[in-house]
Amino acid sequence: MSTDIADPFVEPYIQHGEKNLSIEQEKLVSRSREPDTVSRTFQSDSASAYPIGGAIAGYTYMPIVDRERNQSGPLWVYRLQLEGIADDSKVWIETDYEESTPEEGWDEIRRSVFTRDPTDASWNKGARLLSDALTGVIGTASTDKLGKTAHGLLTGQLFVITFASGFTGLTSGTEYYAIRIDADNIKAATTSANALAGTAINITADGTGATITPVPVGYEFLWIMDRGQRKHRAAGYWEVNMTLKGLRGEKPYKRRYSGTPQTMSPGQYTGSYSGVFGVNVGWPPVAGTDATLSGSDLNLEWDVPQTQIVDTFVTSTPPPTDKFGFWIPDDPPPVFYFPMLGLSYTYHIPFGWKLMNMQAEQLPGQQLWILSLTFGYQYYRTPKAA
């Protein structure tokens, strides 16, 4: 019986060529609303190469998020997954977007972005939803035009302009409204109404190198109200979650009606009494057979109709808290007058239509309110209780 004995003069491995090299081609995967991923496989003579969070040549903004290491003789094989934004010119991508436009209350947009710069002003509370910036804008004083090839703006569209010098008549960092001249030129107006009327700001000095950042049409009255962020597993990246609130479009004026009887018990009515009362039937109501009541020394009780309307709407005017009292709503409904008799009466001020309740919710930091006004009709007099 013989025993195999390793030859002490023969190495167990024979190595040829480079120790540190790529052994598989790049596999790049890009998906809608998700970070890009890259798969790579490398060979190295180091057991501590390619740490999690590190970067490899050619992938500046694609940190390592997964790392599998296998030993192959005196060398190591690393299977890596990188994650981030493969296009170095992009700092962020949108990963989620949802709109909610309820019948009442503020419209909302819930939005999430994957970004290398969570401190960007675009993600701050109070910021609007912005389109891609237009750079290299020029200003011409002789025509009041702002020039940018294929700017894409529409008349009345809101935008912010920033510049270092020139453009006298405009203020850097200020919002203006576009007056579209043609595909390559606009003028600036101070208000939407001025833009629609073609009333432009007078530019008295030329300028170059400005940046225009448009607000998408229909998103002018939406601002970031809530914001949160967390670190992503890809080193150097963050997930920023935002909720924008405001108006996505026109919010309809809404009116509710209510009517509740209020019982009045003036007590016994001395003397003879005779009353004829109209009766309505069906829907839509039509006149039916009148109800009658007659007698002497009757103990009367009246169910007085209390008519209320609640108007809810959005306004840029602060709530008029000094207007409680006499206030006739727009287009008030007809009110039935009930001829109540009693031994004595209470006279009410205010009477007729009056404001009974006001509820207002302001969009934080903005001159916008959701206002609910409750109007009620008050008879000028009602019988006193016995």
Total domain modules: 3
Query: What is the fold named in CATH at topology level of the largest domain?
Result: Elongation Factor Tu (Ef-tu), domain 3
Q: If you average the pLDDT, what whole number results? A: 90
* CATH architecture annotation name of the largest domain: Beta Barrel
- CATH homology superfamily name of the largest domain: Ubiquitin-activating enzyme E1, FCCH domain
**Text of the CATH class of the largest domain:** Mainly Beta
The secondary-structure class comes to mainly beta
Kindly report the spatial arrangement of strands forming the biggest sheet: 8-9-12-11-10-13
In percent, how helical is the residue content? under 10%
Largest sheet: 6 strands, antiparallel, barrel
Provide the descriptors you would attach to this structure in a database record.
Elongation Factor Tu (Ef-tu), domain 3, elongated, 386 residues
